[in-house]
Amino acid sequence: MEKNEHPFDFSLVFILFLFSIISFLSISTAQEFGQYNENFLVKQIAWYIVGCGIILAVMYFDMEQIERMQWFAYGFAMLLLIFLILAPESIARPVNGAKSWFQIPGIGSLQPSELSKIALILTLSHLISAHHEKYGLRDLKSDFLLLSKMGLATFALIAIIMQQPDLGTSLVLIAIFSGLILVSGISWKVIVPIFLFMSTVGCLLIYFIVFQPDILNIIGVKQYQLGRIYAWLSPEEFKEGDGYHLYQSMLAIGSGLITGKEASLGNVHLPEGHTDFIFSVIGEKYGFVGASFVISLYFLLIYRIISLSLDVKDPFSSYICTGVISMIAFHVFQNAGMTIGLLPITGIPLPFISYGGSSMISNMLALGLVFSISFRNKKYFFDRE
Description:
Blueprint: H1 10-30, H2 40-59, H3 63-68, H4 70-86, E1 102-104, E2 108-110, H5 113-134, H6 140-161, H7 167-183, H8 188-211, H9 213-218, H10 223-233, H11 244-255, H12 278-311, H13 315-339, H14 357-376
Helix pairs in contact: 1-2, 1-12, 2-14, 4-5, 5-6, 5-7, 5-13, 5-14, 6-7, 7-13, 11-12, 12-13, 13-14
EC number: 2.4.99.28
Keywords: Glycosyltransferase, Transferase
Enzyme class: transferase
């Protein structure tokens, strides 16, 4: 017998409502810097309205229908990324050395790599659930087969995205891939060597960046990308150049102290304060208390999705929740970390708060999947708690 519970998850609705208020207030504050000619607040409100429509549209489909459409989503994301590379500059103009956006008249720019995150979550979730359904008794051979399929799906997208180049999105895809590996049931005898290898590669990259940068130039790493690393390591030294964004961000957050800075004291000039550095705006305006509240709200969102992933009976749905958690958690950790100098700057926005139509569409698609899973999750009186 089913429990008589309302299936709509109002806790998620309330969390999303709080994110929208924080986003509107923060973007409004960022526009006070006087460096923008557009009203991003009005556009963000419009994107939130579009995002709510996306959630409702995704909720219309159940998980069986969504799973049947996952290869279509993956193929569509691939085609968009390939078309972006081949598209003329009249519709895909390079910005800061990266060809990552379509320019759409009347709408603005669209970043197709954002859609690849959702496509990858769906594809990896399907690959894992279908693999386990086919191979009831798992061994190292079947684990390597699953890992190979997941790796191929992930790094095929990354290979195309790095042609733009877009390191930030590539790192998000790796985070999704890593999160789903951990819950995929693949033996630790396979997982541990892989993560040790990835850690070794990371350490070697750091060594070459610091001591042998000429080698990285040979293999195609751009000088501006190295400049971001050097600025991260010594923001004071590079504050007039590559480290300007980071130095200003740290100055803004530090000036906010515990409860925020009064408007009469003036704002620290923050380039891209409405997008990538919105967390710096929050730290300056509302201090440690405001920044802590925002981080706590993300913890609540992730906790709610974790609870849902443990509660659902459908493995495909559970894996989707894990992928969404991996995506959001990495975004928050990277964005907040780069604004305080903990991590290098990669241009990753803060979910549901930073201005941006492409990122809003991606995040709302992810949340729409969660809402759909929660809406159709049934509990029974005789279920084991």
